[in-house]
Amino acid sequence: MTTQPLQIKTVRHALERSVAASVRARRLFAPGDHLLVAISGGADSVALLALLASLAPVWRLRLSALHANYGLRGEESEEDERFVSRLCADLGVPLVCERIDLHQAGGLPKGLSLQARAREARYAALRRAAAALGADKIALGHTADDQAETLLMWMLRGSGAAGLAGIRPLREDLYVRPLLGVGRAGVLAYLKAKGLAFRTDSSNAKPLYLRNRVRRDLVPLLKEFNPAVVDALTRQASILRDEDLCLEQWTAEWIGRHARRGAGRAMTVPRTELLAVPVALQRRVVREVVKQVTGSGHGPTFGAAESVLEKVVRGRSGSSLALRGARVTREYDAIVCSGLGAPAPAGRTIEIGPTPSTVVWPATGQRLRLRMMPAGTTDAPHGRDAAQFDAERLTHRFALRAWKPGDVFHPQGMGGRRKKVQDYFCDIKLPRGRRTAVPLLVAPEGILWVAGYRTDHRFRVTPSTKRIVVAELLPADMMTGGEG
C-alpha cells in the first residue's frame, strides 16, 4: 500500500472549534494536561492527533502517542508503524511503538476472540505508557459512526440500558474521546482540508467480525429509511447514557445504605429491602455487588442477574448460585455474595498462651484478648463482644476453634439446660455460611463462649467469685497494645 507524502497544512478548521467547545462542555481534559493519544494510522486516529496538535499551543497541551503493532498483517503492519512514526515526527509528538504478540501475551482473559485480545492488550499497553509518561488522560479516536455501530451491535445482542448507552466520552476519568460527536464524513473532510494522508486497515473489509458487517451492510440499509440514522443513534445513545448514569447513581446510593461488607470482599444485602425496589434496580444491585466482590471490571450478564433474582433472591433460604468468580446465597433474609476464591474459615484449633494474651481469628481477622482481673473490677468490659468467667472453675488452657457437628454447651439464661450449638445457631437465625466464621472460646471443661453471642452457664460469675477471666472480641483493625 502506498501513501502520499505528509504535508501538514495550518489552515483553521471549524471542526477544531467544535471539538474544543465539546471538550470544555464535557470537561474531557483541561489546559495544561498531558494527553497520550492512541494512534493506529487510520483516518480517525490521524484526525484526532492532528486536531489535538492544533489545539496544543492555545491549551498548553503536552502530547505523546502510542502505536500498537500486532504484526498480524505482515508488511502492511510494518508500513503502518513507519507511517505513524513519520506523522508523529512531522507533528513533533513523541511516539511509543509497542509490539504485541497476541499469541504470547499473558494476563489476558481466556476465551476472547483475536479482535477482543487485541483490544485488551492495546488498553493494557496504553495504561502502562500513561503511567510511565505521567499522562493525565488517554485520548481515543472513536467517532459518531463508531457510536452508532456499537449501539446497533448491542441492540442485536438484546442489551439493556448500560449497553445501549454506547461508548462514553469519558470513562474511568482516564479515557477521553474528543471525536465522539463527529461523523466519519466530518473526519475525512478535516483530513482533506489539512492535507493529511492515512492508512486503511485491510482487515476492516473482511466480514469475519460483526462490527464490519454492521458497518458494511446494516448501516447503509438503515440510511435508506433515515439518511441521518447515525445522528439519530448517537442522540439515542446520549439519552440512554444519561438514564444509565441515573440508575448507576441510585444503585450506588442503595448499596451504600444497605450493603454490609464481610471477610475478604464478601457483601451482604437485606432481601426484604432488595425486593422492595423496582426490578430494574434489583438487577443493577446484583450486578454491582457481584462486580465488587469479584473485582472484575464487568458485572454478570443480564441472564445471570435474572437467574440470581429468580433462584436465590426469590428462592428459599439456603438457595445458592455460582457465577464466574462468585457465589450468591440466600441465608434467611440476607443475600450473601462471596468470592469463589476466598479462603475458607480456619478449621484448626488456635492455642492461646497464658493470660494476658491476644490471638487473631483468621476467618474474620478479629482479635480475641484474654485478661485476668479481680472479681468486681469496675473497668471490666461489658457488652456483646465481652464475656467474664469464674477463673476457679476453669483449667487455664484456652483455645479458639470453629463450630463442629455435635458441639454442645449450656447457654446462659436457660437455667443450665444443655443445647447443641447447631440448634442455637438455628434459634438465632445465623446463616449457615457464617457459622464456621464464629469463634468458639474453649477450655478442657467445655465451650466457654460462642464469641459475640452467648456464654456458658456453667462458668458464670457468682457472688462468691474471687477472680475472673475477661475475654474481649476486638475488631480486625483495632490495635491491642502488644500484649502476649
List keywords for this structure.
14 helices; alpha+beta; disordered N terminus; six-stranded mixed beta sheet; elongated; Phenylalanyl-tRNA Synthetase, Chain B, domain 3; Rossmann fold; 22 strands; five-stranded antiparallel beta sheet; 3 domains; Uridine Diphospho-n-acetylenolpyruvylglucosamine Reductase, domain 3; disordered C terminus; 484 residues
**How many helices?**
14
Secondary structural class = alpha+beta
Q: Supply the CATH superfamily name of the largest domain.
A: HUPs
- State the end-to-end distance: 75 Å
Q: Quick one: CATH class of the largest domain?
A: Alpha Beta
What's the number of extended β-strand segments?
22
Number of domains: 3
Backbone CA Rg:
31 Å
Unreliable spans: 1-11, 342-346, 477-484
CATH architecture of the largest domain: 3-Layer(aba) Sandwich
Strand fraction band? 15-25%
What oligomeric state do these chains adopt? Answer: single chain
Query: Which fold name is given in CATH as the topology of the largest domain?
Result: Rossmann fold
Widest sheet: strand order? Answer: 3-2-1-4-6-5
Biggest sheet features = 6 strands, mixed
Mean pLDDT: 86
Shape: elongated
What is the share of helical residues? 25-40%
Topology record:
Elements (H helix, E strand, L loop, with lengths): L13 H13 L7 E5 L4 H17 L2 E8 L5 H17 L3 E5 L14 H20 L3 E3 L4 H13 L4 H4 L5 E2 L3 E2 L7 H11 L15 H16 L3 H30 L1 E2 L5 E4 H5 L3 H16 L7 H12 L6 E4 L2 E6 L2 E6 L10 E2 L5 E4 L6 E8 L11 E5 L8 E3 L6 E2 L9 E2 H7 L4 H4 L4 E4 L2 E5 L3 E2 L11 E8 L10
Parallel strand pairs: 1-2, 1-4, 2-3, 4-6
Antiparallel strand pairs: 5-6, 7-8, 8-11, 9-10, 10-11, 12-16, 13-14, 14-22, 15-22, 16-19, 17-18, 19-20, 20-21
Helix pairs in contact: 2-7, 5-8, 5-9, 9-11, 11-12
